[in-house]
From TrEMBL:
One of its GO terms (cellular component) is membrane. PANTHER family: SOLUTE CARRIER FAMILY 17, VOLTAGE-GATED PURINE NUCLEOTIDE UNIPORTER SLC17A9. It is a multi-pass membrane protein. Keywords: Membrane, Symport, Transmembrane, Transmembrane helix, Transport. The keyword GTP-binding does not apply. GO terms for molecular function: symporter activity. Its main location: membrane. Coiled coil: none annotated. The chain crosses the membrane at residues 30-49, 56-78, 84-102, 122-141, 153-173, 250-271, 292-309, 315-334, 346-367, 379-398. Residues 1-402 form the Major facilitator superfamily (MFS) profile domain. It comes from Lymnaea stagnalis. This is Major facilitator superfamily (MFS) profile domain-containing protein. The keyword Metal-binding does not apply. One of its GO terms (biological process) is ATP transport.
Length: 404
């Protein structure tokens, strides 16, 4: 539901921009505004999740972004002035990003605390594949609703579905386990008082982490991979609308995400099968293998699509580029749980904050490049080069060894 809500604007931006009179730069501003807010709450989400539990943070955040999604059409129509309406939509996208920024750090904190080390890659890749299911839901059902009922109806339906999911999650994560959590908390408090265990909520040793090249390598690698993923996520519907206007939206909005789901889950399954618990060297080799496929594979197909001319070839290249991104879920995305298992939520928050920056910088620049050059090849080529840079940094400095 998180990604179904997030990908509604890329799906509807063509129709919305035509109705509102936005150009490419203004459309890029709307698409990238989400990530201004998304960047703000990554660290806070990880810190709060490590302190009070992701099972508390996630439902509150989900309620916020579901309500914002539901009210987006009404916010867009608050003013008849083009520029005022644009500013309102941009602010709503920032607010949506602020609310969604709590999700992945909270989820990472839960997994790092509840799941055994040698099972995390597969579980994380399965959970993260939900993002592709959400994009698939928006691309299929959302495209049909968009074609038949206009752009506002998908926002209402996905917003309501998000609220329903939030209620189910709140019941499953909090109410049913409240007594159990209270009992565990009482037992831990008694053990802490007796000195038998240490408080796991110790401060994160940021100074130590910031001196480690391996920590910087995951920030840079995640930044570069997200730059490609967010540009494809945000601009792919527009690319196909402009280059193949007769193509069906439910096809090009669905196919890339259908092939990404098995790549995401399969990469996690392979990772867990190959991992020997406690073998840091094998962790490192595996992480670098996963992100070689993710970063180099994405770059390769982005270069190829620049020379493709037919609809089927472009769709295949786009699908394979997005599918390669799925390997990232069992590579750098799980690395914070390896290098800082006790502070995974906070470290992931910092990493995802760096990864959110290309959401507003890269997506906006892509729109500006399109407005100035009218060239999709220029967008794809610079995106591929950024991927190769991130791959080189992580290959040289990345590690699966515990740092703190």
């Amino acid at each position: 539901m998180l990604y179904a809500s997030r990908t509604l604007m890329p799906l509807c931006v063509v129709s919305l921009s035509q109705e509102m009179g936005w150009d490419k730069t203004e459309s890029g501003t709307v698409l990238s505004a989400f990530f201004w807010g998304y960047t703000m709450t990554q660290f806070l989400g990880g810190y709060l999740s490590d302190r009070i539990g992701g099972e508390v943070v996630l439902p509150i955040a989900a309620c916020m972004w579901s309500i914002i999604t539901f009210w987006t059409p009404q916010l867009a129509y608050l003013s008849t002035d083009k520029h005022t309406s644009l500013h309102i939509v941009v602010l709503s996208r920032v607010a949506l990003g602020i609310a969604q920024g709590f999700h992945f750090p909270g989820m990472t904190s839960i997994i790092s605390r509840k799941v055994l080390e040698h099972q995390r890659s597969f579980l994380y890749s399965v959970v993260a594949s939900g993002s592709h299911f959400g994009t698939l839901l928006t691309g299929s059902m959302g495209s049909v609703l968009l074609d038949y009922f206009g752009w506002s109806i998908p926002f209402y339906i996905i917003g309501l579905c998000g609220l329903m999911w939030m209620l189910v999650m709140r019941y499953g994560l909090i109410n049913r386990q409240r007594n159990k959590l209270m009992l565990v908390s009482l037992n831990e408090a008694q053990l802490l008082d007796s000195g038998k265990i240490k408080d796991s909520r110790a401060s994160v040793p940021w100074v130590h982490l910031f001196t480690k090249p391996a920590f910087w390598s995951i920030l840079i690698g995640h930044f570069c991979e997200n730059n490609a993923f967010f540009i494809l996520l945000s601009w792919m519907p527009t690319y196909f609308h402009e280059n193949f206007p007769t193509a069906k939206g439910w096809v090009f909005n669905v196919v890339p995400w259908v092939v990404t789901i098995p790549s995401s889950i399969g990469s996690g399954w392979i990772a867990d099968k190959m991992i020997t618990k406690g073998n840091a060297f094998l962790f490192t080799v595996l992480l670098k293998y996963e992100d070689t496929v993710a970063l180099c594979g994405t770059a390769l197909f982005l270069f190829i699509i620049s020379y493709a001319s037919s609809y089927s070839a472009c769709l295949m290249c786009m699908a394979l580029a997005v599918a390669c991104c799925g390997f990232h879920n069992s590579g750098i995305m799980v690395n914070p749980q390896d290098i800082a298992p006790k502070h995974a939520g906070s470290v992931f928050g910092i990493m995802n904050m760096a990864g959110a920056i290309p959401g507003f910088v890269g997506v906006y620049i892509a729109g500006h490049i399109l407005e100035v050059t009218k060239s999709w090849n220029a967008v794809f080529s610079q995106t591929a080069m950024v991927c190769l840079f991130g791959w080189a940094v992580f290959i040289i400095f990345g590690t699966g060894k515990k740092l703190v």
